[in-house]
Specification:
275 residues, 12 strands, disordered N terminus
């Protein structure tokens, strides 16, 4: 009974349950430019072929969280090798990077070695690309994704420093309250990849911000329960979209689909940050 009550209290803390203590907040959240993706064949995001003949420009977004003297990155964007890449309309998607995370952090006086924690929504290259620029950080990634990265050298390459024995890495199962006060929580949203997660961040002025990972890539996809052709589990994908929508509504969150420029623009443009 004591254990059950403790678990219930922990869940209530981050979810904002009426019986729980007031959740904590972190100081600031910045959105970072982590690339652009030109989608030449939008049907790659629909296993029901809903977007025949359509194209779309998506953004790659990453996030910096400040909690006192501690800094955390959420996702690390496209690799530096995508910098200045030229578009090839014959390919389903083209990725391009204009600025690295390290360059952007320098604008606000943050050095790579100050990043103590990296949270990765999932193992795709546009979310892990610059992780190795922060070798002193501990890496948090869904346990299912960590297992795949360890088994597949190509997938694991961007996070190779954390795949060695004794590395500072944690495979996250389910939801995880990162700071123990409900201020930053990794949210299990499976289906896109085996261990896919989103992130909940509480700020003193802005309130709750809910970051999607890749639970969906743009509004129209989320609104229509559109499942990309490359997701690993359709049923889990639909359940994750349903949870993301309902969680955002119940917490009155600023919900952000990380690849949709309309959503990313809800947060102040860098180098300004949300408080």
């Amino acid at each position: 009974m004591i254990r059950a009550l403790a678990v219930a209290a922990a869940i209530g803390l981050w979810a904002g349950g009426a019986a729980a203590a007031t959740p904590g907040t972190v100081e600031k959240l910045w959105r970072l430019d982590c690339g652009k993706v030109i989608v030449n064949q939008l049907n790659v995001f629909s296993d029901t072929q809903s977007y025949t003949g359509q194209t779309r420009e998506l953004v790659g977004s990453c996030y910096l969280i400040k909690d006192g003297d501690a800094y955390m990155l959420w996702d690390t964007g496209l690799p530096a090798s995508a910098r200045g890449a030229k578009a090839d309309p014959s390919q389903p998607m083209n990725a391009r990077l204009d600025r690295t995370i390290v360059e952007q952090l320098a604008q606000i006086g943050v050095k790579p070695e100050q990043i103590g924690l990296i949270g990765i929504s999932h193992y795709h290259f546009d979310h892990t690309g610059q992780a190795a620029d922060f070798p002193k950080a501990k890496l948090l990634i869904g346990a299912g994704d960590l297992k795949v990265a360890r088994a597949d050298a190509a997938i694991g390459k961007p996070i190779a420093p954390w795949l060695a024995d004794g590395a500072k890495v944690e495979g996250v199962e389910g939801d995880k309250d990162l700071f123990g006060d409900g201020s930053v929580v990794m949210i299990a949203l499976g289906g896109h990849t085996p261990g896919h997660h989103g992130l909940l961040v509480r700020l003193p002025r802005t309130g709750t911000v809910l970051l999607s990972g890749d639970v969906a890539h743009f509004h129209e996809n989320l609104d229509s329960d559109g499942v990309p052709t490359f997701n690993v589990d359709r049923a889990d994908s639909l359940a994750a979209m349903d949870r993301f929508r309902k969680l955002g509504a119940s917490l009155k969150a600023v919900s952000i689909i990380q690849h949709d420029p309309r959503d990313v623009a809800k947060l102040p443009a860098f180098p300004e940050g949300a408080e």
